[in-house]
Amino acid sequence: MADETRIQVLKEPNRPATSDKWMWVALGGPPEKQSVLFDYDPSRAQEVPVRLLDGFKSGYLQTNVYAGYNEVCRKNNLIQVG
After folding, report:
1. What are phi and psi of 34, to 5 degrees?
2. For residue 19, what pLDDT band results from cuts at 50, 70 and 90?
């Protein structure tokens, strides 16, 4: 499972407080050893999920069907469900 959520950071160097920033969250792993990943990134670009899910190969990725996940699904042989 992966999702990105818009957040506001008030005092970030060289960026106005009104600009969009993103908290990316991913949940995965085997049932006996699941993990949750939180990653802050100023971008919502497809490069972020590609970087975050680099080691996740072959299987299902549950998302909100945002097109930014298409590249990681293609590259890692994932089936996107939402």
Report:
1. -75, 155
2. confident
